């Protein structure tokens, strides 16, 4: 058994780094020992740690921490892609957030990462036909994190929700891989029609703070939406849009705007992202 665990550890560099950083954190600040041990060091895998953290955050008088933990455990066993996406999300936060200096920070402290992982479980529940439980997760996420994501919303890997406050993503919204979204962003509809009515965000998109993207429109890969913009029409790939209503104001400024996180409209095309 020990040999198997060593092999798994070697194949999971993200979890290995989290455990190493957790031990260093306890040595540096013993008062946090209880938190760090409960959230990280008491667990054998990242999946176990994620299930525990989600349960801690979403538990209430309506549903106990143990029940939510069992639901999350079942999700991670049934769909390994959930934890694969979580690893990509941790790397995304570390790479793109200048306030993130260790892999343990998203898991312990950042509500954007925590809300994303809770949503991935709620989306699994939705796909399994367990709709009421999925809605419960959505409700608790909104109450705990100020992040309201419909359980049916589909989200790719490597998502970075910076600050993650006052976010609303609708039922038929789709978010691609390696997307970065700042606070107070809405991916909403334009009416009450019960159909495909929410935005489709391509890979590598950067959405600035306060932006509203409304309707069943496509936001092209590697494009940028400036802060405070209201986007009502489709956005071509690798362009920057700004304004109310948003209009194309130039190229994206780099090949990977969601990674460079450069929100200056005058960014040069040759800038590296």
Automatic annotation (TrEMBL):
<dbReference type="GO" id="GO:0005737">
    <property type="term" value="C:cytoplasm"/>
</dbReference>
<dbReference type="InterPro" id="IPR010493">
    <property type="entry name" value="Ser_AcTrfase_N"/>
</dbReference>
<comment type="similarity">
    <text>Belongs to the transferase hexapeptide repeat family.</text>
</comment>
<dbReference type="InterPro" id="IPR005881">
    <property type="entry name" value="Ser_O-AcTrfase"/>
</dbReference>
<dbReference type="Pfam" id="PF06426">
    <property type="entry name" value="SATase_N"/>
</dbReference>
<keyword id="KW-0028">Amino-acid biosynthesis</keyword>
<dbReference type="InterPro" id="IPR018357">
    <property type="entry name" value="Hexapep_transf_CS"/>
</dbReference>
<dbReference type="Pfam" id="PF00132">
    <property type="entry name" value="Hexapep"/>
</dbReference>
<dbReference type="GO" id="GO:0006535">
    <property type="term" value="P:cysteine biosynthetic process from serine"/>
</dbReference>
<dbReference type="InterPro" id="IPR045304">
    <property type="entry name" value="LbH_SAT"/>
</dbReference>
<comment type="pathway">
    <text>Amino-acid biosynthesis; L-cysteine biosynthesis; L-cysteine from L-serine: step 1/2.</text>
</comment>
<dbReference type="GO" id="GO:0009001">
    <property type="term" value="F:serine O-acetyltransferase activity"/>
</dbReference>
<dbReference type="InterPro" id="IPR042122">
    <property type="entry name" value="Ser_AcTrfase_N_sf"/>
</dbReference>
<dbReference type="InterPro" id="IPR011004">
    <property type="entry name" value="Trimer_LpxA-like_sf"/>
</dbReference>
<keyword id="KW-0677">Repeat</keyword>
<feature type="domain" description="Serine acetyltransferase N-terminal">
    <location>
        <begin position="14"/>
        <end position="118"/>
    </location>
</feature>
<dbReference type="InterPro" id="IPR053376">
    <property type="entry name" value="Serine_acetyltransferase"/>
</dbReference>
<dbReference type="InterPro" id="IPR001451">
    <property type="entry name" value="Hexapep"/>
</dbReference>
<keyword id="KW-0808">Transferase</keyword>
<protein>
    <recommendedName>
        <fullName>Serine acetyltransferase</fullName>
        <ecNumber>2.3.1.30</ecNumber>
    </recommendedName>
</protein>
<keyword id="KW-0012">Acyltransferase</keyword>
């Amino acid at each position: 058994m020990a040999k198997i665990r060593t092999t798994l550890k070697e194949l999971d560099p993200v979890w290995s780094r989290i455990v190493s950083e957790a031990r260093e954190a306890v040595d540096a600040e013993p008062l946090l020992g209880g938190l760090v041990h409960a959230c990280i060091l008491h667990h054998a895998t990242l999946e176990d740690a994620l299930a525990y953290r989600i349960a801690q955050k979403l538990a209430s008088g309506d549903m106990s921490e143990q029940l939510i933990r069992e639901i999350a455990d079942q999700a991670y066993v049934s769909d390994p892609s959930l934890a694969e996406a979580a690893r990509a999300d941790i790397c995304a936060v570390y790479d793109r957030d200048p306030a993130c200096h260790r892999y343990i920070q998203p898991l312990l402290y950042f509500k954007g990462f925590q809300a994303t992982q809770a949503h991935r479980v709620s989306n699994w529940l939705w796909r399994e036909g367990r709709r009421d439980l999925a809605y419960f997760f959505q409700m608790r996420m909104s109450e705990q994190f100020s992040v309201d994501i419909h359980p049916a919303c589909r989200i790719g890997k490597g998502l970075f929700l910076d600050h993650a406050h006052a976010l609303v993503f609708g039922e038929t919204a789709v978010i691609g891989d390696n997307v970065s979204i700042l606070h107070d962003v809405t991916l909403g509809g334009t009416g009450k029609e019960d159909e495909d009515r929410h935005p489709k965000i391509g890979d590598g998109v950067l959405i600035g703070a306060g932006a509203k993207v409304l309707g069943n429109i496509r936001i092209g890969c590697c494009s940028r939406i400036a802060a405070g913009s209201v986007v009502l029409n489709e956005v071509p790939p690798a362009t920057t849009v700004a304004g109310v209503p948003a209009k194309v104001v130039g190229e994206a400024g780099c090949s990977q705007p969601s990674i460079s996180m450069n929100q200056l409209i005058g960014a040069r095309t040759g800038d590296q992202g």
